[in-house]
Amino acid sequence: MNEQSPHTDIVNDWIIGYLTNSLTPEEMQSLQNWLNVSEENRKYFSDMQEVWIAASDEADEQHFDKERAYQLFLEHTENLVQPSVKRKTLTISPWMYAAAMVVIVFFCGTIAFQSGKRVLRNQLTQITVEAPYGSKTKLYLPDGTLVWLNAGSKMSYAQDFGINERSLNLSGEAYFEVTRNEEIPFKVHTEELDVKVLGTKFNFRNYKDDLEAKVCLLEGKVALNTRQKETILHPDQQA
Questions:
Q1: What is the rounded distance in angstroms from the CA atom of residue 115 to the CA atom of residue 52?
Q2: 135 - beta bridge partners?
Q3: What is the fold, at CATH topology level, of the domain defined by 126-233?
Q4: CATH 2.60.120.1440 residue ranges for the chain
Q5: Phi and psi angles of residue 216, each rounded to the nearest 5 degrees, phi first
Q6: What is the mean pLDDT of the segment spanning 158-185?
Q7: Concatenated DSSP letters for 2-49?
Q8: Which of 83-92, 154-163, 186-195 comes out lowest in average pLDDT?
Q9: Contacts 24+ apart (CB under 8 A), 230-238
Q10: How far is CA 218 from CA 95, 162, 199, in A?
Q11: Which run of H or of E encompasses 194?
């Protein structure tokens, strides 16, 4: 892996930490920075997710040898990182070892990668944030985007938001200050309208009782998509 820096053992710690929801905010930012370096890094992350999901999918049904499973995990990790270099032992922290023992299984001599690919999206947790009536909720998405969620609004996004895509569902009203990432556009989906941006500031309103969705752009440029057409919005315009 040409651009895998810092060292692979640290990256693996970050990935396992992400999958077990045990990363600190600083570690999460480090992982995000590493993912932004190259497509190769993002593919490595996706491969590790597939190992995790495939293993989890079979863990309840298959008996496995913990020591063998651990070695298989190390071997697969090394193959992804340096396929043409002689294998070496990775330094793994104790908690990472424990996590690997729980989820990595040895099934018919191989990891069920194809199964993992099929169930990956369904297995990832959907995170839902709601703002009660009479109050607003401020939050930062994993990619650094600032969101102000207005009263009576709800937003949901996948656990892997910001890795391969930045897509969320919105019901109600929210203000966004989107972190720019030209490789992964930011998308907001509602029943009436979809918004696609690279990096911008805008307000999106689409309550269930509203007759129509409204978008007010403060900075940047957004594309509004309905079933009939696409409209480009510029600063100080609304639609």
A1: 11
A2: none
A3: Jelly Rolls (2.60.120)
A4: 126-233
A5: -120, 120
A6: 87
A7: TT--S-HHHHHHHHHHHHTT---HHHHHHHHHHHTT-HHHHHHHHHHH
A8: 83-92
A9: 233/202, 238/214
A10: 46, 23, 11
A11: strand 194-197
Enter the tokens of residue 195. Answer: 């918004």
Residue environment code for 156-186, b if the CB has 16+ CB neighbours within 10 A, otherwise e: ebbebbbbbebbbbbbbbbbbbbbebeebbb
Confidence of residue 69 (pLDDT cuts 50, 70, 90): very low
Residue 213's nearest CA partner among 186, 179, 173 is: 173
Query: CA-CA distance, 188 to 170, in Å (whole number)?
Result: 7
pLDDT higher than threshold 60 for residue 31: yes
Q: If residue 56 lies in a helix (H) or strand (E), which one and from where to where?
A: helix 39-59
Cross-strand pairs, 115: none
Largest CA distance in the chain: 64
Token readout for 74 is 């190390």
**pTM for the whole thing?**
0.51
Determine the average pLDDT of the residues in 28-39.
82
pLDDT of residue 233: 63
- More confident call, 13 vs 74: 13
95-122 average pLDDT score: 42
Q: How many angstroms separate the CA atoms of 23 and 37, rounded?
A: 20
Query: Which residue type is seen at 39?
Result: E
Q: What local confidence, expressed as pLDDT, does residue 167 receive?
A: 92
